[in-house]
Design goal:
Blueprint (H helix, E strand, L loop, with lengths): L3 E5 L11 E3 L12 E6 L2 E7 L14 H10 L4 E10 L9 E3 L2 E5 L24 H13 L4 E2 L3 E5 L7 H7 L5 E3 L2 H10 L3 E10 L10 H22 L21
Parallel strand pairs: 1-4, 1-5, 5-11, 6-8, 7-9, 9-10
Antiparallel strand pairs: 2-3, 3-4, 5-10, 6-11
Helix pairs in contact: 1-4, 2-5
The structure holds the ligand CSC[C@H]1O[C@H](OP(=O)(O)O)[C@H](O)[C@@H]1O and adenine.
The ligand CSC[C@H]1O[C@H](OP(=O)(O)O)[C@H](O)[C@@H]1O binds next to strand 5 and helix 5.
Keywords: Glycosyltransferase, Purine salvage, Transferase
GO molecular function, one term: S-methyl-5-thioadenosine phosphorylase activity
Subunit structure: Homohexamer. Dimer of a homotrimer.
């Protein structure tokens, strides 16, 4: 049973040669694609491409609940979310990696929870990301000599459109990076007591710099930097301890009404 799951974002539709592909049915429908099981440097890992194998799910239609449920059902305890993001700051440059530490939710109409009643839960989201995995992946990226930011606030917009210049100027006041998929993915993982880490690759300067971002730019820059994500995963995954000492599962202790 894989204890580690990877959700690949734009430009990341596979990370290993799968030994097995499992079609999982969940109470929330099917995941974005059958779950691939394989190995990263000898560690068993599950993989789902967030937008589907052929990028057929836009960010507001990704079956987030089915993806997280499927990984949980397969025994995954730790989720690594790979994302492409825009930069809202000069010093966060295209090609840099960010190990996100906070998010701000500007999405509008998604399925945000597994607890729609009669079971009611209010999960703490003060520190949304797994401290153990954040440390491992930051140190790994640093050792690999990649430009990496230890922290960054990710503002998640509804999409699928990009922001206006006015929106981007507002987001720049309080966030470092911008994307369309972190919420509700991280929230749902925490609702099931799973660890979640976000490894974000910066692909553009959104729309506040001279040339406004477009989708082709995101995919091109992601392709150019894909090797960084692969190397970080290869070197970082074997460093993840078997037993969790991070306390991510403890958020469930006092969450239920
Ligand atoms: C392809 S451009 C916009 C698209 O890219 C990002 O996807 P992901 O977070 O899955 O890497 C962004 O959030 C949008 O969904
Ligand atoms: N500028 C941007 N806005 C929203 N999502 C993105 N994904 C990559 N770049 C983005």
């Amino acid at each position: 049973m894989p204890k580690i799951g990877i959700i690949g974002g734009s430009g990341v539709y596979g990370v290993f040669e799968p030994k097995e592909t499992i079609k999982v049915h969940t109470p929330y429908g099917r995941p974005s694609a059958p779950v691939e099981i394989g190995e990263v440097e000898g560690v068993e890992v599950a993989f789902i491409p967030r937008h589907g194998k052929n990028h057929e799910f836009p960010p507001h239609e990704v079956p987030y609940r089915a993806n997280i449920w499927a990984l949980h059902e397969l025994g995954v305890e730790r989720v690594i979310g790979i994302t492409a993001v825009g930069s809202l700051r000069e010093e966060y440059k295209p090609g840099d990696i960010v190990i996100t530490d906070q998010f701000i939710d500007f999405t509008k109409k998604r399925e945000y929870t597994f607890y729609n009643g009669p079971r009611v839960a209010h999960i703490s989201m003060a520190d949304p990301f797994c401290p153990e995995m954040r440390k491992i992946f930051y140190e790994t990226a640093k050792e690999l000599n990649f430009e990496v930011h230890e922290k960054g606030t990710y503002v998640c917009i509804e999409g699928p459109r990009f922001s206006t210049r006015a929106e981007s100027a507002m987001f720049r006041q309080f966030a470092h990076i911008i994307g369309m998929t972190l919420v509700p993915e991280v929230v749902l993982a925490r609702e099931l007591g799973m660890c979640y880490v976000n490894i974000a690759t910066i692909t553009d300067y959104d729309v506040w710099a001279d040339k406004p971002v477009d989708a082709q730019e995101v995919l091109r820059v992601m392709k150019e930097n894909n090797y960084k994500v692969q190397e970080i995963l290869k070197k970082g995954i074997p460093r993840i301890p078997e037993e969790r000492k991070c306390g991510c599962a403890d958020v469930l202790k006092n969450a239920f009404v």
